[in-house]
Design goal:
The complex is a heterodimer of chains A (about 325) and B (about 170).
Chain A lengths: L4 E4 L3 H10 L3 E4 L5 H6 L7 E4 L8 E3 L5 E4 L4 H6 L1 H6 L1 H8 L4 H6 L2 H6 L5 H4 L41 H7 L3 E5 L5 E5 L22 E7 L7 E6 L10 E6 L2 E5 L6 E2 L1 H8 L4 H9 L10 H22 L2
Parallel strand pairs in A: 1-3, 2-3
Antiparallel strand pairs in A: 4-5, 5-8, 6-7, 6-8, 9-10, 10-11, 11-12
Helix pairs in contact in A: 5-9, 10-11, 11-12
Chain B lengths: L1 E6 L2 E6 L6 H8 L18 E4 L2 E4 L12 E3 L1 H4 L7 H8 L9 H16 L18 H7 L10 H15 L1
Parallel strand pairs in B: 1-5
Antiparallel strand pairs in B: 1-2, 3-4, 3-5
The chains are: A alpha+beta (about 325), B alpha+beta (about 170).
Chain lengths: ~325, ~170
């Protein structure tokens, strides 16, 4: 690990001020992804601002019947929250499908959203990767791309976003609250947080440098059932090959794109009365593969109808 | 950088490079080598310790992040002369061959049993609103962050089950 300086923030305003004042600074929350990447010298911040103890770890009711989840709430606490389990079961299911118990106890809500891809070429510093080293090329394009994107990829990058939690949040129409370095608070839909790779896969979100995620806000749970399904190589503790969150008529896919992928074509088709199989076929018209990841197209075509049926069954039981 | 961590009930003052992981601080600075370094990337669970009663991978945390925290390592779980129930259960059930993963397995199991007692769900939990029962499937899922290269899993499950009633 390269040397860095460390400070612990005592309030959010001080944290963003410190980030603005220090070149190459990064926020440190749970650290489960960032410290791993720092050991591999994929991340090499000069300064860490520890935001892990900021008073933003609460899960609170909002006046309109939703929930505000503080950015520092651990994945375990969110998954175990009684309100999340009864009103947003898809979120609990997605969170407990990710990582291990130890990781979920440390990983935070904000950090989970900002975790980086598991693409093998991003991790292997002897190989080209436009995300790790802009302009160096993409080793995955013609390499071991079994777990690469089938939606929204570019010739510069075919990596996927690995979060399970974010897929459920996308289907739930969650909003992200942030504090900018100038001290200005803003909020926007989660689907506007992450970028597609385009020509600059190293820029992964629409956050401005030094902007801190402070909370994730869930609207009141919509009508209809909820379901989360994930397919992977092992039964537990493994990144997904594909996952899907269904919330009423909303469908979001995971491990298939550079961001949680809202399947809007499938949603429109479902709303127009198409069968779940027809609906996902409409979405998959835009899918493409790079060879080894072609199986994901077939996988998603089967996974989504199963999840939609499961959610409908849950919805009927309400 | 100065930091104070309570380790196994004793306040310990450290002066470490900020890069020092909690794992390295325990092993190298404090000489508590019971906690093991396996992969050093959070994949194997050998470094599992309890921080304020909650299990984490000590390799993926900086010592300076734990100023004021209370850490329990395998040395705080029991001693050779006074084994804890779960340590005795691992011996009785022959729940290891080489033993390298064992401190992490035991600390993880202690944290896991508390999580079950607190009714935290896992992906094996069917009804998210019901009281959790620690079935074999639940136990295996909840321990999936701890790898045993000797593959003593059936015995590890048996050892944890044998004490689950009294600890959970």
């Amino acid at each position: 690990m390269r040397p860095f300086t460390y400070e612990r923030a005592t309030d959010a305003a001080g944290a963003v001020k410190a980030a603005a004042a220090t070149p190459n600074a990064k926020f440190l929350a749970g650290g489960t992804n960032l410290l791993d990447l720092m050991k591999l010298e994929i991340e090499h911040p000069a300064h860490l601002i520890d935001v892990g103890r900021l008073p933003m770890a609460q899960v609170e009711d909002t006046p309109d019947g939703g929930l505000r989840i503080g950015a520092m709430a651990t994945n375990s606490h969110v998954a175990a929250d009684a309100r999340v389990r009864s009103r947003y079961p898809v979120l609990t299911q997605a969170i407990v499908a990710g990582g291990s118990g130890q990781l979920r106890n440390k990983a935070t809500t904000g950090g989970n959203l900002l975790q980086r891809t598991r693409c093998a070429y991003f991790y292997d510093t002897t190989k080209p990767c436009n995300k790790r080293q802009p302009g160096s090329g993409c080793g995955a394009l013609e390499g071991l791309n079994r777990n690469s994107a089938i939606f929204g990829a570019s010739h510069a990058c075919i990596a996927t976003h690995p979060s399970d939690m974010a897929v459920a949040l996308a289907a739930l129409d969650a909003r992200i609250e942030t504090l900018s370095p100038s001290g200005e608070a803003r909020a926007f839909p989660i689907i506007e947080l992450h970028r597609l790779p385009g020509e600059t896969p190293d820029v992964e979100t629409h956050l401005i440098p030094g902007e801190l995620i402070t909370a994730v806000v869930l609207p009141p749970p919509p009508k209809g059932g909820q379901a989360y399904r994930k397919v992977r190589d092992r039964a537990s503790y493994s990144a997904g090959l594909a996952s899907v969150a269904v919330v009423g008529g909303a469908v979001a896919l995971g491990a298939v794109a550079h961001k949680p992928w809202r399947a809007v074509e499938a949603e429109s088709a479902l709303a127009a009365g198409a069968s779940p199989a027809e609906a996902i076929a409409a979405e998959l018209k835009a899918a493409s593969d790079n060879g080894r990841n072609g199986f994901k197209i077939n996988l998603v075509s089967r996974l989504v109808p199963a999840a939609v049926e499961e959610a409908r069954q849950q919805g009927r039981g309400e | 950088m100065k930091t104070t961590i309570t380790v196994n009930g004793e306040a310990r003052e450290l002066d470490v490079d900020p890069r020092t992981t909690l794992l390295d601080a325990l092993r190298e600075t404090l000489g508590l080598t019971g906690t093991k370094k396996g992969c050093d990337h959070g994949q194997c669970g050998a470094c599992t310790v309890l921080v304020n009663g909650v299990r984490i991978n000590s390799c993926l945390s900086l010592a300076v992040m734990h100023d004021g925290d209370a850490v329990t390592t395998i040395e705080g779980v029991g001693t050779v002369g006074k084994l804890s129930a779960i340590q005795q259960a691992f011996l009785t059930e022959d729940a290891f061959q080489c033993g390298y993963c064992t401190p992490g397995q035991i600390c993880s199991a202690l944290g896991m049993l508390q999580e079950v007692a607190d009714n935290w769900p896992s992906q094996e939990t069917g009804d998210l609103t019901a009281q959790i029962r620690l079935t074999d499937d639940e136990l295996r899922e909840r321990m999936s962050g701890n790898i045993c290269r000797c593959s003593a899993y059936p015995q590890i499950v048996a050892a944890i089950k044998s004490v689950a009633g009294e600890l959970a």
